[in-house]
């Protein structure tokens, strides 16, 4: 029996927000199989690959994915059945050609990616390898990379923007353990600060319910209040700010850019782009940020370049919506020196090989990588193995709570144990 693909099937399942998503299963002729599910974002950049939805308002308010499921069960299954699952790049190329559009709008990035990942899971099983080691062997053809560490977690502790209750403009407020800490220690730090934040919010009689990614969604007055809460929470632990732990922000700035500029509740009138850059520099000077993600609108290339030139040597300026895990946009950013890091999300580009190509470009040009989940997640832990496989500097999987987030952190704990035992 061979490693050729016997069948590819898919079904509609639910993500962590109760929205439908695609889960694909690949069965090989030798009996090995792999299953993987695709995540979905709420805050989506306009340059992302297309996530195919049914639009039938009678089902799941139009967000069903039966069309994408049928694309897997029909044309995708027909196209790659009989192909060797160990030929990941060949399969991904076939899927891209089958779709035939620049943004996967025909088949849907959700159907293509679910298939692409499931092929890799089945292939890894057939080789009797842990998924992260098999994925690393695939990545080696893009960029020679040795497995020697677990990425540092960056925890989304307070949810705002489209991930929260609507009262904070900035989308995510993070704490980041120092990168010299072993992963299990960093995870413990995240949990400790998380419960410290909860105690502070309770003391202030603030709302301490959680948002989409497990971080708190409190009723604070300004975005700066949220940063002060994080600082207070760190002070209430034995960890040292600036030594053991740092702060990060994901502004998702495109979401609050209006005709008159960037409008946030910290100021009654909108900031002009140049003023907003000054404001971001002030925030960094005050809170010594380690990570600053999507600080400006997704197509304000000149603004990104100016901000990076001012503080890019001190803080990671991270492109998410700016780059959309797209190789051409990443190359432009490198040429313009518009950012120093990329938030890499598999479903933004739509296939495993394309994702690895982007990661290889980043590594070649010393662009740091933060491998990321999406706000609408499943309990699939593929992205955790992928982050280790490409040796990204950081992972962004949400708060250290909620099953779909914890599953990924627990997977990293398991991989850490395996890697330590192998040394």
UniProtKB/TrEMBL annotation:
Binding site for (2R)-2-phosphoglycerate: 171, 345, 374-375, 396
Molecular function as annotated in GO: magnesium ion binding; phosphopyruvate hydratase activity
A family per Pfam: Enolase_N
Reactions mediated catalytically: (2R)-2-phosphoglycerate = phosphoenolpyruvate + H2O
Subcellular compartments: Cytoplasm; Secreted; Cell surface
E.C. number(s) listed in UniProt: 4.2.1.11
Biological process per Gene Ontology, one example term: glycolytic process
Keyword annotations of the record: Cytoplasm, Glycolysis, Lyase, Magnesium, Metal-binding, Pyruvate, Secreted
Enolase C-terminal TIM barrel domain location: 147-422
Enzyme superclass (EC): lyase
Swiss-Prot/TrEMBL cofactor(s): Mg(2+)
InterPro entries (alphabetical): Enolase, Enolase-like_C_sf, Enolase-like_N, Enolase_C, Enolase_N
Family: Belongs to the enolase family.
Function description: Catalyzes the reversible conversion of 2-phosphoglycerate (2-PG) into phosphoenolpyruvate (PEP). It is essential for the degradation of carbohydrates via glycolysis.
Name the UniProt record assigns to this protein: Enolase
Source organism per UniProt: Candidatus Gottesmanbacteria bacterium RBG_16_52_11
């Amino acid at each position: 029996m061979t490693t050729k693909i016997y069948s590819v099937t898919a079904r509609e399942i639910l993500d962590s927000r109760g929205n439908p998503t695609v889960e694909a299963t690949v069965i090989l002729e030798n009996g090995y199989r792999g299953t993987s599910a695709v995540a979905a974002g709420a805050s989506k950049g306009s340059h992302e690959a297309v996530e195919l939805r049914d639009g039938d308002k009678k089902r799941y308010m139009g967000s069903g994915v039966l069309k994408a499921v049928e694309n897997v069960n029909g044309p995708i299954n027909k196209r790659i059945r009989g192909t060797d699952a160990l030929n990941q790049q060949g399969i991904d190329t076939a899927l891209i050609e089958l779709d035939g559009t620049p943004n996967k709008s025909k088949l849907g990035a959700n159907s293509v990616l679910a298939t692409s990942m499931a092929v890799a899971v089945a292939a890894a099983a057939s080789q009797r390898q842990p998924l992260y080691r098999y994925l690393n062997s695939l990545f080696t053809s893009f960029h020679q990379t040795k497995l020697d560490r677990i990425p540092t977690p960056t925890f989304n502790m307070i949810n705002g923007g489209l991930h929260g209750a609507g009262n904070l403009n900035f989308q995510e407020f993070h704490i980041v353990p120092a990168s010299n800490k072993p992963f299990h220690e960093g995870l413990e730090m995240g949990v400790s600060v998380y419960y410290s934040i909860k105690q502070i919010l309770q003391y202030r009689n603030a709302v301490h319910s959680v948002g989409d990614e497990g971080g708190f969604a409190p009723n604070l007055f300004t975005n700066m209040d949220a940063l002060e809460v994080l600082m207070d929470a760190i002070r209430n632990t034995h960890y040292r700010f600036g030594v053991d732990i740092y702060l990060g922000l994901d502004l998702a700035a495109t979401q609050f850019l209006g005709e008159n500029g960037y409008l946030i509740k910290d100021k009654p009138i909108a900031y002009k782009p140049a003023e907003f850059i000054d404001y971001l520099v002030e925030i960094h000077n005050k809170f010594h940020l380690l990570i600053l993600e999507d600080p400006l609108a997704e197509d304000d290339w000149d603004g990104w370049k100016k901000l990076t030139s001012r503080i890019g040597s001190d803080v990671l300026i991270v492109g998410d919506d700016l780059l959309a895990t797209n190789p051409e946009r990443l190359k432009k950013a490198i040429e313009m020196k518009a950012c120093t890091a990329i938030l890499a999300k598999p479903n933004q580009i739509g296939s495993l090989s394309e994702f690895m190509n982007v990661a290889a470009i980043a590594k070649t040009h010393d662009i740091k990588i933060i491998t990321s989940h999406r706000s609408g997640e499943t309990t699939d832990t593929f992205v955790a193995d992928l982050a280790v496989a490409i040796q990204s500097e950081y992972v962004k999987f949400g708060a250290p709570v909620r099953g779909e987030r914890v599953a990924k952190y627990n997977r990293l704990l398991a991989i850490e144990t395996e890697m330590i035992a192998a040394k």
